[in-house]
C-alpha cells in the first residue's frame, strides 16, 4: 500500500493538526464511512485557515504547473528553431539548439571581451552542410581537372552539366559583329546602361523575350510582355516563384527524377519543402495523376500544406516532353486541389525529337480554365547557349504573383549592359531563326550519335525529345540493385573512367542504376573517347561479376 | 463542520476527490484557453513572413478543404498566393516610394519639361557619367568581345561561370576598394563574394547571420530600402536605435545597449548591428573612436557588425573616411564578426550594372554566401567589362578625383542656397545627399506635419525629397536631398522651389 504525499495531507480531524501526518495511515480507512469526513484534496489547508481562497488556488496552481511542465516538455525541441516554419525543422533544430545554448552560456562566463566566435545563422549552417550530393561533388571534381583533347587528355570529361556548347560559334559570330554597338546603342549614350532602371527588366527586353519564346514554341502561343519578370537566371526565377506561392513549411510536389538543383533553389532561402512523386521506368517516367494524388493526400495527413506542383517540360533529366493530355489532366488536378502549377520550360527551344513540344501556355490559352494558377519559368541559358549571361524569366498570368515577383526582383536584377545586348540579339530575327534551326539540327545529330554509341555498349536509354541529356539505364552494370551500387558505379566512372555523370539518386530517382549523360558540352570528336571510357568501366564491372 | 471549499455541493455530494479537483482545474484551463485565443487571433493577419505561418495557414485550411468537397471539379476560388507574397505585393505606402513613383510619372527636364518634378529622392550620381561614357567608347572594342577566341573569348562569356563572381573581377574589385578607402588597407580577393547589387549582398548576409525572428540593430535615420532588403524574405526584424541631432546623428553605445537589452526582454535574439558608413541619409562618417567602441560592443554582446560602405569613395569633405576593414586590419580584433557591404552603383555611378559585393573575414559566412550567390549572379558580360574598367588604373584614379571634386562643387552650391533660405543642415563630408533640417517650416513638431511638408514639396514645389520619417528618424522635420542627379544649373531652380514652399509655410502664422 503506497501513499502519496497528496493523500497524507488528508486529516481526520482539524484539531489534531500536528500529529495528523503520522496518524493518517490508520485513520484514512475509516474516513469513508462517516458523513462528516469530506474528501477534498488538501483538506488540511482548507479546513485550517486558507478556506475558500487557498482551497481553489492550490489545485489550480498545481494544475497550471503541470501544464507548464507538459508544454515545456512537448514543445521544447520545437521551440528552439525560430527560423524554421518548415517541418524540415528536425535537423534545423539540432543546429540552432546547439548554437544557441553555447552562445548564451559563454556570454555569462565572460561578459566582456573575447565572447567566443561570432556564430552564424542556422540556415547558413544548413546550407553548408548540404552539398554532398554526387551531382555537386562531380561538378567540383571536373573544375579541378577538366578534360581537354589537346592540353589535358587525361582530364575528366564533363557529362554532368546541362550546358550547350554546340552553337557557341553562332553566338560568337553575332557578338563580334554586333556586340559593342548593341550595348551602347547607336547614339552611344551612357545613361542607357549606367543609370537606375526598372529592377524587373527593361520593357524592350521583355518584348524581345516574349517574341523569342513564341519562336521557340514554334509560334503556337503568344506571350504578353507585361506578365514577365526578368531575373538573374532561372534559378532565381524558381526561387522567387516559390517565395510567392508557398510559405515556409509548405510543400511542392515534384515528380522524380528531377533536376538536382531544385533541392537548393527551392529549399534554401524560401524554406519550402519538396515532396518527390516517384515515376517509374515502366511508364517511361511519365508522371501519373494517381501518384500525385497519393502524394498530395499523404502530405495532407502529415499536416503539410501542398501549394503547388513543379514540372519540367521537356523533362530534365529524362528528356521526354509532356503530352497535351497530360497537361490537361495536370491542370484539372491543380484546379481540383486549388494549388499552383509551375512549369519549367527552360528547354522549350532545345527539342530535337519528332514529338511536338506543347507549352502549358498554349493549353491555358485555348482552354477556359483558371489561368491564374499556372506559372512558367524560362531562361536564355539553354535555348540560346547563354549560361554565362544569367537571364531567367518568370511568366505568370496571376496579377498578385507578378506584382510580388516584380518587387522581389530587387534581389536578382539583370545588369543593364547585358539587357541591352540581348535586346538587339533577340530582335535580330534572322539570327534567332537561324540559331534555333541550326541548334536543333546539331542537337539531333549529337543525340543520335551518342545514343548509338551507348547502344553498342548495350546501354539503353529512354526515348527523349528535348534537352541536352540522355537518361541511360546502367542497372546491368551495378553490383547490387540499390543506391549503394549506383553510387559505386558513379564513383568508378568518375575516378577510373574519368567521366562525370549524374547518378539517378541525385535526381531522386526511385529506381537505381539510371544515369544522366549531358552530351551538348562535347564536340563530335569527344564522343568516341567517352564511349571508350564507358566501355573500360563496364568491362571491369562485368569481369568481376 | 461546515467546510468552505469551492463547489462544496459537488464535493460533498457524490464526486468527491475527483470532481473537487477536476472542476476547478478544468475551469482554469478553459480560462487559459480563452486568453490564449484572444491573444493569438490578431497575429495571423499581421504581415506574415511570421515564423509561425502555420497558425495562419491552418486558418485557411478548412475553407479550401470544404470547398473542394463541394465542387470536386473546376471553379474553386482564385489560386491563393503565399502570405509573404501578399504582404509584399501591397502597394507602397512609405513616402520614399510614393515620391519615387511620382517622379517616374512626371520627371523634370530643364529644356523639355521644366514643370516636372525634380528628383532629390534617389541617391544616384550623374555627375561623372561623361567620364564612364568616354572610357566605354574608347575601350569597349577590346575589353569584352573579341573574335580571337582566347581566354576571354566566347567561352568566357557564354558558358557557366562561378556564380559568386569571376576571380578576375574579385581581384579588380579588391584593388578598386583599396584605392577608394585608402592606400594602406588591402583587401583580399578571396574574401569577396560578388552579387547583383548591394541589395542582394545585404540580404544574403542577413540570411547567413540571422535566423527568422532574430533581430538586427540599426541606428536611425537609415536608408529606407533596408526595411525591404533585410526583412522581406529573411524574416529578420530590424530594431531602430534612435540617434539625435545633438550627437550629429552618430550612434551612441548607450542607446545600442538599451535597445539590445529591451530586445532581449522581449525575447528577441539580436544577431548584429548594421551601420552605414558614410551614413545614408545623414552624409557624415563615423569617427575612428566610434568604430572601436562599436567593435567592443559587438564583442561584448557576441554579435556581428555589418558595415555598409557603399559611399566610401563619394567623400567630398576634408575629413578622412575610416573603413571597418582598416580598424579590423590594424589590431587583433576578432575579425570574424565584421562584414562589409560594397558596390559600384554609387562610387562608380553605374547602378544599372547591378554589381555589389560582400567582404567578410568569416570563413563560414563566406562559404555560405558563395552558395547563396547562385540566386543573384552577375552576367559574365558585365563582369568582363568591369574587369577591364577597374584595372585601368589611370582612369580610376582620375575618375575618383574628378568625382570628388564635382560632388563638392554641387554640394557647396546647394548648401549656399540653403544658407540663404535660413535652413540648416547637418555638416557631412560624404555621400550624394544633404540632410536638411526643415523643422522651421513644419506647422507642428510632429510626423504628421513633416509629411504635410513632404506633400507640399512634392505637389506645390515639385521636388521629391525623402522625409526623415521614411528613414525612421525620431526627430521630425528632417529631409534627405540627393543633389548628384542635378546639374549645376538645376541647383538654383531647386532652391527657388524650396523658397516658394518656405514662404507659404511661414505666411499663415
General description of the model:
The complex is a heterodimer of chains A (545) and B (509). In chain A, helix 13 links the parallel strand 5 and strand 6. In chain A, helix 9 packs across helix 17 and helix 10 crosses helix 16. The radius of gyration of chain A is 32 Å and the shape is globular. Helices cover 49% and strands 10% of the residues of chain A. Chain A has 20 helices and 13 strands. With 545 residues, chain A is an alpha/beta fold. The N terminus of chain A is likely disordered. Chain A folds into two domains: 143 residues, Aspartate Aminotransferase, domain 1 (Alpha-Beta Complex), CATH 3.90.1150.10; 240 residues, Aspartate Aminotransferase, domain 2 (3-Layer(aba) Sandwich). The termini of chain A are far apart. With 509 residues, chain B is of the alpha/beta class. Chain B has two domains: 148 residues, Alpha-Beta Complex (Aspartate Aminotransferase, domain 1), CATH 3.90.1150.10; 232 residues, Aspartate Aminotransferase, domain 2, CATH 3.40.640.10. In chain B, the strands form three sheets. Chain B has a seven-stranded mixed beta sheet, with helices on both faces. In chain B, helix 11 links the parallel strand 5 and strand 6. Chain B is globular, with a radius of gyration of 28 Å. The termini of chain B are far apart. Chains A and B meet through helix 3, helix 4, helix 5, helix 7 and helix 8 of A and helix 1, helix 2, helix 3, helix 5 and helix 6 of B.
Helix/sheet category of chain A: alpha/beta
Mean model confidence by pLDDT of chain B: 84
Under the CATH scheme, the architecture of the largest domain in chain B is 3-Layer(aba) Sandwich
What is the tally of beta strands of chain A?
13
Strand content of chain A: 5-15%
Give the CATH superfamily of the largest domain in chain A.
Type I PLP-dependent aspartate aminotransferase-like (Major domain)
CATH class of the largest domain in chain A: Alpha Beta
Total helical segments of chain A: 20
Tell me which oligomeric state these chains represent: heterodimer
Under the CATH scheme, which architecture of the largest domain in chain A would be assigned?
Answer: 3-Layer(aba) Sandwich
Radius of gyration of chain B, taken over Cα atoms and rounded to an integer in Å: 28 Å
Rg calculated over all Cα atoms of chain A: 32 Å
| Structural class label of chain B | alpha/beta
Helix percentage range of chain B = 40-55%
Number of separate strands of chain B = 13
Largest sheet of chain B: 7 strands, mixed
